[in-house]
User: Fold this.
Amino acid sequence: MTKFLKYSGILIVILYVIFLAVPFFITDTSYLVEKIKLNTDFRLTVEDAVILTSPKLTAGIGAKHVEVSLPDGETFLTADNVRIDLFVLPLIFKKVELNMISAENLNLNLKIKKDGSFLIKDYMLPAPAYNLKFSKNMPDVYVNNYNISFISIPSDKTFSLYGNNLSIRDFIQDKKIKISADGKLMSAKLNAIINTDTKIVKSKKGLKLDGYTNISDFSVAVNGKQLPASNLDLNFKRNNIAFYGKLYSSGDEVTELLGSFSDGIYPKADLNCKSNLRLKSAAEIIKSIGEMFDYDKFGDLKASGVVDADFSIKTNFDEIESSGYLKINSASVNYELFNIAANNINADVDLSNSLINIKKAEVTLAGHTYHFGRDSFCCR
Assistant:
């Protein structure tokens, strides 16, 4: 038994060394590139491809430069210093578990057809049946310097996301994921700068988040005029979300939100709100964003009235501390597509002295006016 273990150990060490030395002996990778080409209708150009192995028992392929084109020659993907590798041992059990995907200077142009599907799907061949299962442990993804564009074929409108760093780590399907990114959203009607480092974990009690997401210089063009830059800061710590937002709906309309929410054994909420939002402005923003994505079904959305709010409210869901007011005067929201017609929307809520006094709250739906009160609900 001792000799068996000794020779087995020696054999394992020899095989391990041979595995690590594979890249030094196999330098012709053209057959791998041809194998990839056989599984798609794309044109593939790979420069300086090499076999890669690592002490973690991973194997893969790396390339100095990669270009992928449609059959007509239009290039939709380019990248430098590309690396894709997977764990070797799971293959013994007919299981594929990717370890890492990384690239630099990634440029990806995804054209979108009228039905909302990606054009490249038309050129993807059915995957060959190797009777392999894919692991729920997804690969870590690292991209330095990226530019991803979504292009509408009918209108030629472009929506781009670009930045310096993008990483996806600790990704297990239906369980957890960690995302870090800095980037900019750019289109003819919408601009924003996004920074995030957020971990999301799914449990029986729901989603738990840790980290932050900051959206700054967020601006939408409405009727040919760019709105002032808005911003939104979100901070996550397990069961707590803290936020601050300053959101412009026109040059002189702004909604400020500051607060936090916590769930769990001791839930609590804290909200401060100040707003002079015109509902017509909100409807125009929704329509403008819809047009950006070639979604024209918001065309008949109409709204009027003003939200006048300046209040704070804090509660542990047993007791409430509050101050300020919330008023809505003669507002309406109409959306013919879904047959929504809410008129005569009025509200006058006094939150001073930690008392919520609903002086008026009413809405007319389908010819009936509904009245809401702190302790009552009636309809006439």
